[in-house]
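This is your field. Have a critical look at both lines of this record:
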Amino acid sequence: MQKLLWGTAQMGLNLLPAQAAAFDTFTEELLAWNERTNLTAITDPDQVEIRHYLDSLALVPALAALDGVSPATLLGRGVRAIDVGAGAGLPGLALRIIWPKLRLCAMEATGKKVRFIEHMVAQLGLADVQTVHGRAEELALRDEYRGAYDLVLARAVASLPTLVEYLLPLARRGGRVVAYKGSAAHEEALAAEYAIRVLGGQLTRLIPVEVPGLAETRVLVVIDKVSQTPDGYPRGRGLPRKQPLGCEENPDCGEEMEG
C-alpha cells in the first residue's frame, strides 16, 4: 500500500482511508483469483499498485490539466464512462474507486474476466457500475451503447488504427476517447489519423504522463468526438484488426501493440 499512497500523493490525488482499503481488497482478490484463472501477469503486490493502479489513475491529473481544473474538481463531476476491453477491471474499477460520480460500464469479451469484475463490484460495494460481456465491434452497433458515453477508455487493447473503430462509435458527440499507450503512441496516432477523421473524431492531444515508480513511457491519446460516427462502423468479421481504416499502404499499422 505504500507504493500506492506515495504515488497518488505524487500525482496530487488525496486517497481516502476507505479508498486505500478498497485497493487493498482489490489486490488480495486479484492475486487470489489469479491462482485459479489467468487475469494478470503481474503478481507482486507493489507492482500491481504501480503497473495497474497508478498507471490507471494517471488519467485523472492529465484530464484535469487538459480541462484547466484541479483533480478534485474533475472527480466531483458526474461522468458516464465505458472501459473497453476492461480485462481484470483496469483502468475502470481503479478510477471508480476514487471517482464517486463515475457511472461506469466495463465491457469485456472474456467470461472469466467479466465474472471477476462482477465479483469485485459486489465485494467493494460499488454503485453505478455495469458489466457487459461482449465485443465492442458488435455492441457498439446497439442503440443502448452507441453514442452513449462522455468518456470512452481503453488500456492495452489494440493498436490505435484498430482501436479507434471500437471506441469512437461509443462516444457521444462532444464526448472524449482516451487510449492508454506506450512509446509507440506518436507513430500509432499518425497511422490512425484517417480513421479518426472518418469515424467522427479529432485528435486533441498526446499527453505524456509520469507514473510514479514506472520507468516506461506512458502517453494518453486524447480524441474528441466532433461528429456522429457513420452507420456501418465498427465493421464486423474482425475487419478493424485485419484491415484497419487508412492502413492499406502499411499492413503493419494495425498490429496489436501494448498500451
